[in-house]
Amino acid sequence: MSQAAEPSTGQTENEAxxxxxxxxxxxxxxxxxxxxxxxxxRIQIHKGEIAAFIGPSGCGKSTALRCINRMNDLIPSxxxxxxxxxxxxxxxxxxxxxxxxxxxxxxxxxxxxxxxxSIYKNVxxxxxxxxxxxxxxxxxxxxxRGAALWDEVKDKLNQSGLSLxxxxxxxxxxxxxxxxxxxxxxxxxxxxxxxxxxxRKIEELMQELKQRYTIAIVTHNLQxxxxxxxxTAFMYVDSSQGGRTGYLVEYAPTxxxxxxxxxxxxxxxxRGEFS
Length: 275
Fold this sequence. Notes:
The chain is of the alpha/beta class. The chain has one domain: P-loop containing nucleotide triphosphate hydrolases (Rossmann fold, 3-Layer(aba) Sandwich), CATH 3.40.50. The protein is built from 11 helices and 10 strands. Strands 6-7-8-3-9-10 form a 6-stranded mixed beta sheet, with helices on both faces. Strands 2-1-4-5 form a 4-stranded antiparallel beta sheet, with helices on one face. Strand 9 and strand 10 (about 245-255) form a beta hairpin. The protein starts with 12 loop residues before the first helix and ends in a 5-residue tail after the last helix.
């Protein structure tokens, strides 16, 4: 498709203000070197909800997610024009420490990536990094309970995190992310490397976690977005200028997105008419 549709929020004013906006992410232009990866996309993520990013490969979903806690800063050629407001403050302001941002906006990656250390030390790692010293054992237990893993590992905390199954490793990574008690949890395709049983456990866990955290996920699985997300953002690729630049087509409550999308591109993607 050569023409890029204008983005739609798909929300009425009342729908957009039902819950407090925790993250207001406006990606005007996001570059890797001279490559324009994402443009003209604004997404507001609401407190106590799960927001899902869907769209074909290469449309900028993961790039957009990593923008929310400045993980893209780790790529030397990255350049950002826009803002990400968290608690009303632009996290891209020169005075803001990216490491501290990640203390409050945690992240879980696509592949389970426990460190080659004990289960206990994996969870305590973020606490140590953030110089948290009070009641570390209690915080580790709380995080493991929050990740629905405590009962499975409480008698083997000194064993390597790498000894766990894939699904357990992903829940260990979730425990590590929530040990510092962030307000927002980002999850980049957290189930793509897991079997259906482990995937179901992670999805059930997400529903429990949203009672305490605001969550944003990237998923290629449209059924997963329907099952877990309160709002869904559909991103697509603009190739009208000869490149491949991702942009937001539509952002709406999930039921509306899948039952009555406003944009033709969204309808075609959900129907499987293009990928």
